[in-house]
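Re: duplicated header lines in exported structure tokens

Our pipeline writes sequence and tokens for each protein into one text file. With two proteins the header for the second block appears twice in some exports. Here is an export where it did not happen, for reference. First protein block:
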Amino acid sequence: MNHPRTVIAYINLAHFIDHYAMLVFAAAVIVIAPVFGMTYGELLPYATPGFVAFGAGSLLTGWLGDRWSRRHMMVIFFIGIGAAMMAVGLTQTPQQLGIALLAVGLFAAIYHPVGTAMLVAHAEKLGREVGVNGVWGNLGVASSALITGIVCQYLGWRWAFLLPGAATMVIGILFAIKVRHEARAVRKGAQQGSVRVSKDAMWRVIVALVITIIASSTTFNAFTVAMPKLFAERLSGITVNAALLGVIVAGTYVFGALAQYIIGHLLDRHSLKILFLPLALTLAPLLYFSASLSGLPLILICIGIVICIFGQVTVNDAMIGKYTSDEWRARAYSVRYFLGFTAAGVSVGVVATLHERGGFALMLQALGGLCVLVIIGAICFPQERKVHG
């Protein structure tokens, strides 16, 4: 039998890789666009199919994880996403770039429904493990901006895809050696659905989940994709090159990692609603007021936005973990990520369109309006009661 800490360590690393791989292009597009003789708004939509696949593919991958093997699916994830990233680095035309980014999205779709289900199945303290896992994903987002900026500055944009792609394939080989396939059995101490609400209130859980997942995931993806370009435009007196821009973006994301770690621990002690509502009430106003800011005030407001966005991700994942049993948890997560990432995939085109029409002021105001739905979801969400025994 696999040791839980070994499995969780690789799952955390996979979360890092998943978000890193999906956001390399968002950081590198500023450098790539002139190479292909295109503008930021013209080239960015080539990533849209990959982001849609990131969500849409989760339905199939979650089903395969439950019906076939979560371990085998994760081996495919590591090897496949590594090879796809290397393919992006070898492309010669925008069309080839779009196809390679689509492949990255398809393999990236494996992680969230399958990897998160593996994590929850091996977790003794759900909130803590989801929070720590969220930190790894957040570090993937932050490192993607940081490392991509540095590599693009000193080695060229192609190496920003080739180097992490090769490293990911090596990690996949190690995972295949260290983690074996095993018939799933309920481990003592593993999470098996630890809270309940009355049957009459269950519709409120479903409504809150659907509304929140679509709105918060769209906001998460739009904001993380746009942040490098947003800072490049509005911190022009501070960001003198791609490397420094990457450092500032990464530093902002560190606060999101801290928030996930703290909220993850709090979820083991408090109800979801107690943490859900303050995050929702804070996010929409911050997005709206950031529309007119620049310089240091913008950085400070963006730190607040990142804390709320990533904290909300941790709450969403804990919802699924607490309300589902292991037998169909991967499928539950697949629906969660299908809704979230498919909606988020559309956000890439939305970012490009809004940026062309009204700049980031219009985009941030639109996201602020969208996050009113998150507030509605938080208000609708019922108080739960613990299941003992």
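Second protein block, exported in the same file:
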Amino acid sequence: MAVDVLLGLQWGDEGKGKIVDVLSAGYDLIARFQGGPNAGHTLEFDGKKFVLNTIPSGIFFENTINLIGNGVVIDPITLKKELDKLKDAGHDLLAKKNLLIAKKAHLILPTHQLLDAANEKKMGEGKIGSTLKGIGPTYMDKTGRNGLRIGDITLPDFKERYQKLVDKHVSMLLQLYGEVADFSEREALFFEALDVLRQFPLVDSEHLVNNYIKDGKKVLAEGAQGAMLDIDFGSYPFVTSSNTTAAGACTGLGIAPQQIGEVIGIFKAYCTRVGGGPFPTELDDEMGEELRRIGHEFGATTGRPRRTGWIDLPALKYAIMLNGVTQLVMTKADVLSGFEKIYACTHYNYLGEQIDYMPYDICSVKPEPVYKEIDGWNEDLTGITELSEIPAKLQSYIDFLEAELGVPVKYLSVGPDRKQTLVLH
């Protein structure tokens, strides 16, 4: 049985958590393959709302096992808070025994977060827009072969290993920034959280996932952030520190490329972005503010207002190509209800010519979007449950996107609740 991959095709916040939750009942294993607590996957059902930062979004189904994969970076303090909130809401994952953690997943230390904040502050106006969760410095230690991993917390000399890395970070902070903020309180919470994590099954995840495949069980790899934030193929340097594309599922879980099955790409009916970086279709006006207000476009993790704009087809085509997307999910179609006209960027005017792809120097030479005007729809979508209830103008928009992108839109989300999802094909 192949591994299906679900990921975002824009700049994150596409609604991945909700769709994983919708699909989870049909899978035996949900596995997060990259990112860290900078993710904010929002799930709503039965009148309740949950925001998951590190824990996979299939956690609410009794027969589905969930794995935090080796490609993820873990902040024990944040993960413990997630676990505590879920337990208070009646979901004790330790008792349910449906959460596993990869031994090879790297740890975010309190000093990683100090480095993150200090670096962002020093960059000033050129800052990336980091969530300040320590993600970047942790991945830097990982690639620099200095990092600590979940499996290390079971070793007798873990505290010595920890102190060695902390001493290195403190030295860096003093040399580069001249000061080190007090982190003693957070350090105490860090070790308290590790005591909790030691109670969960810590596994050799590459063997576990491949055994699931060998046994013919269904596996869904859950991505975080979005394809346009990929460290290699996103709008560098305004990107995250991991591979957010389908290729990241191979390294983030230890599976071979030929084991990839369906690639499910999620996109909003419009676009949003958090932090700095290029955004060709951004609406820095009343229309953009209206999209932000109606769509509640504020970060689930940080609370920061998201930048908003019209859908960007060159960027979407690029993401579809990179990931080998086989089926699409369109979310937040309900947000566009009431707009007389909506717009889709079909090309860019770039250095005197019209192109339909993402240029290398998109960060330095701002391409001008070329728009196609599309009739909007007035109907409230949030209560529809049948395909026959989809407004004709929305169906025309979907048909237009399928023709442009060359991939079927299989699912349509018309609200945040798991029930507000229609299967189109």
